[in-house]
Write a structure and sequence with these properties.
The protein has 193 residues and is an alpha/beta fold. Helices cover 38% and strands 18% of the residues. It is built from seven helices and seven strands, in the order E-H-E-E-H-H-E-H-E-E-H-E-H-H. Strands 2-1-3-4-5 form a five-stranded parallel beta sheet, with helices on both faces. Helix 4 (96-109) links the parallel strand 4 and strand 5 (117-121). Helix 1 crosses helix 6 (156-174). The longest helix is centred in the last third of the chain and has 19 residues, at 156-174. The radius of gyration is 17 Å and the shape is globular. The structure holds flavin mononucleotide. Flavin mononucleotide binds at residues 11-17, 56-60, 87-90, 99, 102, 123-125, 130, 134, 137. Flavin mononucleotide is lined by residues 11-17, 56-60, 87-90, 99, 102, 123-125, 130, 134, 137. Residues 5-141 form the Flavodoxin-like domain. This is Flavodoxin domain-containing protein. Pfam families: Flavodoxin_5 (PF12724). It comes from Nocardia tengchongensis.
Length: 193
């Protein structure tokens, strides 16, 4: 039987959801049965051996639905092969190493998660799509978003390469069904690439 994989995401404006759907399609091409679902809709993760988690950064942290998901499914996630991605960078002049500390802080905070792979992808920024408090925050003169033009820094080649990397690790884990998940016994692949 094929190993079932869950790609669970949080997304306010769709950019992270599109990455999650892309990753799910790539993992299906690699031979896995994959479900892709918003974190807030999931009631159980019992059916899955591997979980890919993804959420955007807002104001330096993950959205509430993602934090709730981590808290609710912590014990179950700790028993599974977990990979984590985040979206964030929307200023073309900022490098990945400048924004990476956000993800490192998140992974430190949820230290029990011990993902076998993690990545921070560029995000999408569309001021015209903003709703509610986001719209007002952007208008504040001191906000770095005040003058930022619309942009989409998602690099689909980079995301595809990460999907290949994750699929290879999940295949290796599935080939050793009696071994503990790689995130419990030490990473099969470098946690930070
Ligand atoms: C109001 C607002 C605050 C944001 N704060 C951050 C942040 O603190 N760090 C970061 O890296 N990106 C930040 N971003 C960029 C988002 O993470 C990026 O736009 C992401 O692609 C949004 O994903 P989504 O469309 O799935 O919600 C922010 C975007 C908005 C609109």
């Amino acid at each position: 039987m094929k190993a079932r994989i869950l790609v669970a995401y949080a997304s306010h404006y769709g950019a992270t959801r599109e990455i999650a759907e892309f990753l799910a399609a790539k993992l299906r091409e690699s031979g896995f049965e994959v479900d892709c679902s918003a974190m807030r809709e999931l009631r159980t993760i019992d059916d899955y051996r591997g979980v890919v988690l993804g959420a955007p950064f807002y104001y330096g942290r993950w959205p509430r639905s993602a934090r709730r998901f981590l808290n609710r499914f912590g014990p179950a996630l700790a028993q599974r092969d977990v990979a984590v991605f985040a979206t964030g960078r929307i200023e073309p002049t900022r490098t990945e190493s400048e924004v990476r500390p956000q993800l490192d802080a998140l992974l430190d905070r949820y230290g029990w998660l011990r993902p076998f792979a993690s990545a921070l992808f560029g995000g999408r920024w569309d001021p015209a799509a903003l709703r509610g408090v986001d719209r007002w925050m952007r208008k504040l003169p001191g906000s770095p978003l005040h003058v930022l033009p619309a942009t989409d820094l998602r690099d689909w080649d980079e995301i595809g390469a990460w999907a290949t990397h994750v699929a290879a690790a999940l295949h290796a884990a599935a080939a050793q069904p009696n071994s503990p998940p790689p995130n419990r016994s030490g990473p099969l692949v470098p946690a930070r690439r």
